[in-house]
Design brief:
Blueprint (H helix, E strand, L loop, with lengths): L1 E6 L2 H22 L3 E5 L6 H7 L9 E5 L1 E3 L9 H8 L9 E3 L8 H13 L7 E4 L17 H5 L11 E5 L6 E5 L1 H4 L5 E6 L1 H12 L8 H5 L5 E6 L2
Parallel strand pairs: 1-10, 2-3, 2-6, 3-5, 6-9, 9-10
Antiparallel strand pairs: 4-8, 7-8
Length: 235
Amino acid sequence: MTEIRWFDDNASLAPALAAAVAEDLRAALQAAPSATLAVSGGRSPVPVFEALREADLDWARIVVTLVDERWVPETDPASNAALVKTHLLRGKAAAARFLPLYTGDTSAAAGEASLAEAFADLPRPFAALILGMGDDGHTASLFPASPNLEAGLALGGTADDTPPCLAQVGAVAPTERISLTLPWILDARRIYLQFGGASKVEVFNAAQSSPNRQYPVSFVLAQTQTPVTVFAARN
């Protein structure tokens, strides 16, 4: 169920991915009163956001949320929420409703319960969900070395019996994070995996071979529940 689209660079990839996501949102809004878009942080999605925000959509009927977040307020430069507000929720997309993951609780674990309540009210399945991939094979904040990885993968679970968000730990520094669990990532009409660069192409090729906790993204690629389209830049 994985389609791979290759591009020379992120500049040529971004408008194509934005157009695909806009079409998914348009289709979802034709079938239901509202739709949810889940996105990732980082540098690579920025040009996608800037193209998508000008799409001719009824943005007032769209909820935008994140697949993961560092447990920091929006005043922190590492905040994914701040990134989304700066680059996506502008122009036409300013009319969308935004559901951040940082709740202000003392810890990510303490915020899990209120996020479960908030996500219960979201239009589902997600109309589209954009994932990234790290050099270590992580996606969302499902890191190979996170002590909470097994709970985050929740293999065999569904979105109906698994919490939407769980606390996780980053790889480079022991940064506290919150992440969608795998069953909730898969509760989407379509998943887009975006990455670029030779090193990540190597990681992707390794992750494609079989499900492997060394590469958590492999569990997204191996599943047959939700179509995955890969938007990959060689450089």
